[in-house]
Amino acid sequence: VVLIHDDWFKPLTAGETSKTEVLGLSCVLFNTLMYASPLSVAKRVIETRSVESMPLPLSVATTVCSGFWFMYALLVHDAWVGIPNGAGMVLGLMQLALYVVYRRKSGVRENLVECGPDGPGSHSELTV
Fold first, then answer.
1. What is the pLDDT of residue 66?
2. What share of the chain is helix, strand, coil (3-state, %, to 5)?
Protein backbone atom coordinates (compact mmCIF):
# COMPACT_ATOMS: atom_id res chain seq x y z
CA VAL A 1 0.00 0.00 0.00
CA VAL A 2 1.51 3.31 -1.08
CA LEU A 3 0.43 6.35 0.86
CA ILE A 4 0.72 9.71 -0.86
CA HIS A 5 1.04 12.60 1.52
CA ASP A 6 0.16 16.24 0.74
CA ASP A 7 3.61 17.42 1.85
CA TRP A 8 5.31 15.46 -0.94
CA PHE A 9 4.26 17.83 -3.69
CA LYS A 10 4.25 21.14 -1.87
CA PRO A 11 5.57 24.28 -3.60
CA LEU A 12 8.99 25.71 -2.88
CA THR A 13 9.51 26.83 0.69
CA ALA A 14 12.06 29.09 2.33
CA GLY A 15 15.59 27.94 1.53
CA GLU A 16 14.58 26.06 -1.62
CA THR A 17 15.22 27.41 -5.07
CA SER A 18 14.54 26.35 -8.61
CA LYS A 19 18.14 25.08 -8.63
CA THR A 20 17.30 22.57 -5.90
CA GLU A 21 14.24 21.51 -7.87
CA VAL A 22 16.35 20.92 -11.00
CA LEU A 23 18.87 19.01 -8.91
CA GLY A 24 16.08 16.89 -7.42
CA LEU A 25 14.62 16.12 -10.85
CA SER A 26 18.08 15.24 -12.18
CA CYS A 27 18.70 12.86 -9.27
CA VAL A 28 15.31 11.20 -9.77
CA LEU A 29 15.99 10.79 -13.50
CA PHE A 30 19.50 9.36 -13.17
CA ASN A 31 18.64 7.15 -10.20
CA THR A 32 15.69 5.68 -12.11
CA LEU A 33 17.90 5.11 -15.17
CA MET A 34 20.43 3.33 -12.94
CA TYR A 35 17.73 0.97 -11.65
CA ALA A 36 16.38 0.44 -15.18
CA SER A 37 19.79 -0.35 -16.72
CA PRO A 38 19.53 -4.13 -16.05
CA LEU A 39 16.48 -4.25 -18.33
CA SER A 40 18.77 -5.07 -21.27
CA VAL A 41 20.00 -8.11 -19.33
CA ALA A 42 16.39 -9.01 -18.50
CA LYS A 43 15.58 -8.95 -22.21
CA ARG A 44 18.50 -11.33 -22.86
CA VAL A 45 17.32 -13.63 -20.04
CA ILE A 46 13.85 -13.86 -21.60
CA GLU A 47 15.22 -14.41 -25.12
CA THR A 48 17.74 -17.08 -24.10
CA ARG A 49 15.71 -18.50 -21.21
CA SER A 50 18.93 -18.46 -19.19
CA VAL A 51 19.93 -16.41 -16.13
CA GLU A 52 23.66 -16.95 -16.65
CA SER A 53 24.10 -13.30 -17.71
CA MET A 54 22.22 -11.91 -14.69
CA PRO A 55 24.18 -11.82 -11.43
CA LEU A 56 21.87 -12.78 -8.56
CA PRO A 57 23.78 -10.95 -5.78
CA LEU A 58 23.53 -7.66 -7.66
CA SER A 59 19.80 -8.10 -8.22
CA VAL A 60 19.21 -8.92 -4.54
CA ALA A 61 21.35 -6.01 -3.32
CA THR A 62 19.61 -3.55 -5.65
CA THR A 63 16.17 -4.69 -4.53
CA VAL A 64 17.01 -4.59 -0.83
CA CYS A 65 18.76 -1.21 -1.02
CA SER A 66 16.00 0.46 -3.03
CA GLY A 67 13.40 -1.11 -0.75
CA PHE A 68 14.98 0.40 2.36
CA TRP A 69 15.27 3.82 0.72
CA PHE A 70 11.64 3.60 -0.41
CA MET A 71 10.50 2.79 3.15
CA TYR A 72 12.54 5.73 4.42
CA ALA A 73 10.90 8.00 1.85
CA LEU A 74 7.48 6.90 3.02
CA LEU A 75 8.38 7.67 6.62
CA VAL A 76 9.72 11.16 5.92
CA HIS A 77 7.26 11.93 3.08
CA ASP A 78 9.98 12.62 0.51
CA ALA A 79 8.99 12.13 -3.12
CA TRP A 80 12.52 12.87 -4.38
CA VAL A 81 13.75 9.75 -2.61
CA GLY A 82 10.56 7.71 -2.93
CA ILE A 83 9.90 7.84 -6.67
CA PRO A 84 13.20 6.47 -8.00
CA ASN A 85 13.63 3.97 -5.19
CA GLY A 86 10.04 2.74 -5.51
CA ALA A 87 10.72 2.20 -9.21
CA GLY A 88 14.01 0.50 -8.33
CA MET A 89 12.28 -1.82 -5.91
CA VAL A 90 9.68 -2.81 -8.52
CA LEU A 91 12.34 -3.35 -11.19
CA GLY A 92 14.46 -5.36 -8.73
CA LEU A 93 11.51 -7.58 -7.85
CA MET A 94 10.95 -8.12 -11.58
CA GLN A 95 14.58 -9.23 -11.95
CA LEU A 96 14.24 -11.64 -9.04
CA ALA A 97 11.04 -13.03 -10.56
CA LEU A 98 12.91 -13.64 -13.83
CA TYR A 99 15.61 -15.43 -11.89
CA VAL A 100 13.06 -17.69 -10.19
CA VAL A 101 11.32 -18.48 -13.49
CA TYR A 102 14.42 -19.12 -15.62
CA ARG A 103 16.89 -20.45 -13.02
CA ARG A 104 15.94 -24.09 -13.39
CA LYS A 105 15.48 -23.89 -17.15
CA SER A 106 19.00 -22.55 -17.75
CA GLY A 107 20.91 -25.14 -15.74
CA VAL A 108 22.95 -22.62 -13.77
CA ARG A 109 26.15 -24.25 -12.60
CA GLU A 110 27.51 -23.80 -9.11
CA ASN A 111 30.98 -24.91 -8.06
CA LEU A 112 30.45 -26.92 -4.91
CA VAL A 113 33.80 -28.59 -4.29
CA GLU A 114 37.18 -26.96 -4.83
CA CYS A 115 39.04 -30.25 -4.74
CA GLY A 116 37.32 -33.01 -6.68
CA PRO A 117 37.82 -36.76 -6.58
CA ASP A 118 40.78 -36.53 -8.98
CA GLY A 119 42.85 -34.43 -6.57
CA PRO A 120 43.60 -30.72 -6.17
CA GLY A 121 42.59 -28.53 -9.07
CA SER A 122 39.79 -30.77 -10.27
CA HIS A 123 36.32 -29.40 -9.75
CA SER A 124 33.06 -31.15 -9.14
CA GLU A 125 30.07 -29.25 -10.47
CA LEU A 126 26.40 -29.69 -9.84
CA THR A 127 23.69 -28.51 -12.18
CA VAL A 128 20.88 -26.97 -10.14
1. 93
2. 65, 10, 25
